[in-house]
Amino acid sequence: MDKYDGSDAGSAPASLEDPWYDVPVDHWGDWDGDAAGEPVAVPPPRAAPGDRTDEVYLAVQRSPEFREVRSQYRRFVVPAAVAFLGWYLAYVIAATAAPGLMARQVAGAVNVALLAGLGQFATTFLLTWAYARHARLRRDQAALDLRWDVTMQTRRDSNL
Amino acid sequence: MTSEHQTLALFLFSVFVALTLAITSWASRSRHGTAEEFYAGGRLFSPLENGFAISGDYMSAASFLGISGLIALYGYDGVLYSVGFLVAWLVVLLLVAELVRNCGRFTLADVVAARMRARRVRIAAGTSSVTVSVLYLVAQMVGAGSLVALLLGASGGAQRGWAMAGVGALMVTYVVFGGMRATTWIQIVKAVLLMGGAITLTVLVLIRFHGNLNELLNTAAERSGHGGAFLGPGLRYGQDTVSRLDFISLGLALVLGTAGLPHILSRFYTVPTARAARRSVVWAIGLIGSFYLMTIVLGFGAAAVLGSDGVREGDASGNSALPYLSLALGGGAGSTGGTILFAIVAAVAFATILAVVAGITLASSAAVAHDLYTSLRRRHGRQGWSEVKVARVSAVGIGAVAIALALLARDQNVAFLVGLAFAVAASANLPVLLFSLFWRRFTERGAVWSVYGGLVPALLLVVFSPVVSGSEQALVPSVDFHLFPLENPGLVSIPLGFLFGWLGTVTSPSPADPARHAETEVRALTGAGAV
Known about the structure:
Chain A: The chain crosses the membrane at residues 76-98, 110-132. Chain A: Keywords: Membrane, Transmembrane, Transmembrane helix. Chain A: InterPro entries: DUF485 (IPR007436). Chain A: Residues 1-49 are annotated as: Disordered. The complex is a heterodimer of chains A (160) and B (531). In chain A, strands 1-2 form a two-stranded antiparallel sheet. Chain A has a domain at 49-159. The radius of gyration of chain A is 24 Å and the shape is elongated. In chain A, 25% of the residues are buried. Chain A has helices at 2-10, 12-17, 25-33, 50-62, 64-97, 99-102, 112-159, and strands at residues 105-107, 110-111. Helices cover 77% and strands 3% of the residues of chain A. By secondary structure, chain A is mostly helical. With 531 residues, chain B is mostly helical. Chain B has a single domain (3-526), classed as Up-down Bundle (Sodium/glucose cotransporter). Chain B is built from 19 helices and no strands. Chain B has helices at 3-30, 35-40, 47-58, 61-74, 76-103, 108-115, 119-152, 157-208, 213-224, 241-257, 262-265, 274-312, 321-329, 336-380, 387-408, 415-438, 444-463, 490-506, 514-526. The termini of chain B are far apart. The relative contact order of chain B is 0.17. The mean pLDDT of chain B is 88. Classes of the chains: A mainly alpha (160), B mainly alpha (531). At the A-B interface, helix 1, helix 4, helix 5, strand 2 and helix 7 of A face helix 2, helix 5, helix 6, helix 9 and helix 10 of B.
């Protein structure tokens, strides 16, 4: 137990940055508390207020705040995914279908193929950085606010 | 190989095993016996810890020994593997990690079940998860047997059998007694060891060539016997159209399969939030990317230092290139430096296998207990064991099945199994995952069709492929019933998985429930209601 607590203390900075870290458990707690006893096959919490919860989610989905989060996500992810999958497929197809082009020397022993391979590494790192930055600046705060709203609304409903 | 190498390697490996057992015993004392603890390690790992654990889960001995060996043998064509294994993580980061963390609890099927509460959807997703895991597990265990033969000179069948049984027993012990907490820490320790080993060898290679990469590449090309062709693609996959298509198929499976591997998905549940899941993937991409960059240096380094005969000396498929390289870098056979480096590489390779198989065993026991058992039990209306108990028992069962299959296949060339596991994951798991998360009209029938429509063709195509029959290296070389020319089914089965998902959806008798989609979408992007 003591070592376990120690490792939690080690991860404390991460949880401090994330105010949600321990908030939602008080409602869903009953749901998770008996974990060893009754296995639960269905993940989302939909205990008593089925229809009301549905309405909350439908309303949130239509809200401008949520649509903003979703469009921020899509505006980054769709072009980025198309670009990197296309670039990777082009690379694999070029390596198999045009080995002559890939073997063309650029400088010393370095040829097009090696540059393209290192380019794949470079674009992967770059896109990772850009995605993390975009999510942190454009999505995280709004998503957190929405999570708060949904949690409050569904909790109020279930207490009625 | 002299007995000194073996003794030191065995000693280092025993130290690692003792450490992992200590971790397991510590984790079993602090556990509470809950599903949260067993499957997700309490969900309180930090992104840094989880990033290392993801890397430890992902980087197998096949990457460490296999890819550097392929580069040493075929030059540039081996680099294509490194690239595919890394780029795959962009799919995970952009499309899967955060959303899966927000929507699921323990398994892949949880995410799909967030959209569709149907039992048969959960059974389908659980079945394909178990299939992927068992394929991958058998590949790793046969690899462990070959590694023992290679590194310890134990070429006898009995010793290889014992090595596989030992690996199986250890992985089951970690999972049954330590659950996710022990597995995670073992993966973290392994990732640190693997990175340390790779960095040491890379630095030694670079010192040997005075930091001059040009010199390294030229020497590698010259000593490989292929000349300039060694540095360009085509030595392995360029012979004919079929082998080229086969490579494209493998490339597709690698890049799309990672996001459907159950043991990778289950790692995202060990952190508290989607944001932490994203940050752990960022860490993992940094670690995995640097590791694969180093395998490129090590592969060309092995070709340059050992030459083409040296690379093939221990094992014609190149797996021995890295151990022999370490021997040469340390000062050659018989020198103290060579002995120590060789032993370290051997021990790191063993550690790598253990950490990977533990992760897979845990994920497949979760699929059996959380997806299959709970669904089937409710159908029959019986009251039975608690879910965690079922998970522990199924870990033992999966371990036994994996050991048995590995013993049966121990003399076969099972390298294709890794590619196959990725292909099945990409065909059966990824389409249903992406459709559930992103497609408003996706229905229950679509989900079931998508899973089986990817899983069944992938497996059938392999049965009728040249790896099973009709060639000298096939599993059944004596007969020939191969109908499908490619070794990897991905090129056909991945589009089929998506196609059947679409087909099942448009032919559904009832349309998708908009409330279900609203809930999934809001939860996926905001984390509302996430556990």
